[in-house]
Amino acid sequence: MKTRIVASLAAAALLVSGAATAQGGASGGHAHHGAAAPTAGAAAGYTDAEVRRVDKDAKTVTLRHGPIPNLGMGNMTMVFGVAEPTWLDGLKAGDKVRFKADKVGGQYTVTAIEPMR
Ligand SMILES: [Cu+2]
Question: How far is the CA of 108 from the centre of ligand 1 (A)?
């Protein structure tokens, strides 16, 4: 009997937290930045960024980037791994780029990157 009560309390807690998550997701989705996208040339799924630092030894690039909806990120500067280390050869601090990123093996990783003109 005691076990049964605990189990139903846990189920209720799950329901409550599930509802909270759904609400959070809805309001997050509301903040999509389609209307606020500043550049006409922005391609779907790409995020604008400026290269701050390239570390070929660590195979990382530091990017000051705009919002990344699929990772739930806003504007920030952070270090990314790269899916293809040779991409770093074409990058240097100060470059304006656009890129795609995903979480690969627990690390935020650039999956596509190209210069902007
Ligand atoms: Cu970030």
Answer: 8
CA of 62 to the centre of ligand 1 (A): 10
For the stretch 57-83, pLDDT in tens is 999 999 999 999 999 999 999 999 999
Question: First CA to last CA across the chain, in angstroms?
Answer: 69
Q: What is the pLDDT of residues 78-87, one digit of tens each?
A: 999 999 999 9
Give 15 Cα–ligand 1 centroid separation in angstroms. Answer: 31
| Sequence-separated (6 or more) residues with CB below 8 Å from residue 63 | 49, 50, 51, 52, 77, 78, 80, 97, 99, 110
User: Ligand 1 center to residue 35 CA distance, Å?
Assistant: 21
